Amino acid sequence: MIFIYIGLALFILGFLxxxxxxxxxxxxxTYGYIIKSExxxxxxxNIEEGGGYYTYEANIVYEYFIPKTNHKYESSKIxxxxxxxxxxxxQEHLSIKNKLTLGKKVIVYYNPYNHKKACLVVGKxxxxxxxxxxxxxxxxxxxxxxIKETGQNPEKTFIDKIEVIK
Length: 166
Known about the structure:
This protein has helices spanning 2-23, 90-99, 126-149, 154-160; strands at residues 28-46, 51-66, 71-75, 105-111, 114-119. It is of the alpha+beta class. It has 2 domains: 1-25 and 123-166; 28-121, no CATH class. It starts with a helix and ends in a 6-residue tail after the last helix. The chain crosses the membrane at residues 6-24, 126-147. This is DUF3592 domain-containing protein.
């Protein structure tokens, strides 16, 4: 039963984050420049297997200008929600780094009510959809196990749980 709640929580979280991501489509646009473009590499230890693996992350920082106020801000967010996109796929992060080279001019989306919140891509964070479908999958598997454990006639099992006082 706990897995149904875990799946439901993941589903709701994924749904809310997708709404936030899509809401960023209404943010204002401005221009900015890439001021830092690096590929970070970390070694992750795997004690159980006696080894490890490398993970990679494109470390991109850009500055952008708010036209009406002429203020300058910095951000490292690619998407409006979500944290680091660290993974073992070096080529993917190298492609991001190579596309967003130092000095390149980019379109920046910023929150009109909080100019410090900005990103380069809105409404396209597929990682959030993975969270949504993971929640659905866990709920489905947990519900299937729950139905199987209660037998072929779940109504009978629930009726048996009613306590009658004599």
